[in-house]
Write a structure and sequence with these properties.
Layout: E1 4-8, H1 12-27, E2 36-39, E3 47-48, E4 51-54, H2 56-62, E5 68-72, H3 77-89, E6 93-94, E7 97-98, E8 103-104, E9 109-110, E10 115-116, E11 121-122, E12 127-128, E13 133-134, E14 139-140, E15 145-146, E16 151-152, E17 157-158, E18 163-164, E19 169-170, E20 175-176, E21 181-182, E22 187-188, E23 193-194, E24 202-205, E25 210-214
Parallel strand pairs: 1-2, 1-5, 2-4, 5-6, 7-10, 8-11, 9-12, 10-13, 11-14, 12-15, 13-16, 14-17, 15-18, 16-19, 17-20, 18-21, 19-22, 20-23, 22-24
Antiparallel strand pairs: 3-4, 24-25
The structure holds coenzyme A.
Length: about 220
């Protein structure tokens, strides 16, 4: 049975997701999903960017579990984590959305709720865990592992065998040397060059990347 797709969050990442899934819809003769909607708990209007909006409460109480799949469209790791845990607990399925303009190795393992955006390359034997968001134009080298809820902004490049743990955020243009490990809840600033391991809860920046401060707030966008 065909399902409806619900894009959870209608901010910038939500609009970009709408463009992506409308393209997938068109490529499948308009019939990949029955319908595409936003879920948003902040917006008050009933429609945005050409799609109807439901609150999560309305969605939860009116839409059948077997007729819906959700994709979480926010780049803030703590929000990705909280929304993921909520929809899982409520028994909904997560979609995995891979842009038709991305190149994904047949040996890559991709979890549920993952977003792979346009012009990304995901190389051999990578592991992308649940609910990871990879934005435009990223290159993920062979044998990399990216942990749950992590977000890679535009133009991130990872050498081979890199490990990014859960709940991290790599800002625009970050490069990571092969075999480096970025531990959980850490953030890299724009255009960072990471050449050694990054401890958990750290914010690093610069070339080479150095510690800037601790990620006490667990927020990228304050
Ligand atoms: C890393 C980041 C989250 C830090 O933001 P913040 O917590 O508000 O911190 P601040 O901007 O106050 O910067 C803290 C320190 O880091 C330094 N810093 C910030 N960006 C840096 C960079 N790219 N390289 C080196 N140092 C940097 C600042 O100069 C400041 O140093 P100071 O304390 O000596 O003055 C933010 O700079 C960032 O990169 N955000 C993500 C941007 C992004 O990817 N956007 C995409 C949206 S789609």
């Amino acid at each position: 049975m065909k399902k409806n797709l619900y894009i959870y969050c209608s901010g910038g990442a939500g609009k970009e997701m709408a463009d992506r899934v409308m393209k997938i819809q068109k490529m499948n003769g308009g019939g990949y999903w029955n319908g595409i909607y936003f879920i948003d708990d902040v917006r008050t209007e009933s429609e945005y960017y050409g799609l109807k909006i439901l609150s999560y409460e309305k969605f939860k109480n009116t839409v059948g579990r077997d007729r819906a799949e959700i994709i979480i469209a926010t780049g803030e790791p703590v929000n990705r984590k909280n929304l993921y845990e909520k929809v899982e607990k409520d028994g909904f399925n997560l979609a995995t959305i891979i842009s038709p303009l991305a190149m994904v190795s047949p040996t890559a393992r991709i979890g549920k709720g993952v977003i792979i955006s346009e012009f990304c390359i995901i190389a051999s034997d990578t592991l992308i865990e649940d609910n990871v968001f990879i934005n435009y134009n990223c290159i993920i080298g062979h044998d990399c592992k990216i942990g749950k809820n992590t977000c890679l902004s535009e133009r991130v490049s990872l050498g081979g065998n890199v490990i990014i743990e859960e709940n991290c955020y790599l800002a625009i243009g970050t490069s990571v040397i092969n075999k480096a490990k970025i531990k959980e809840w850490s953030i890299t600033a724009i255009n960072s060059a990471v050449i050694k391991d990054v401890p958990e809860n750290s914010i690093v920046g610069g070339i080479p990347a150095k510690m800037v401060k601790y990620n006490d707030s667990k927020k990228v966008f304050k």
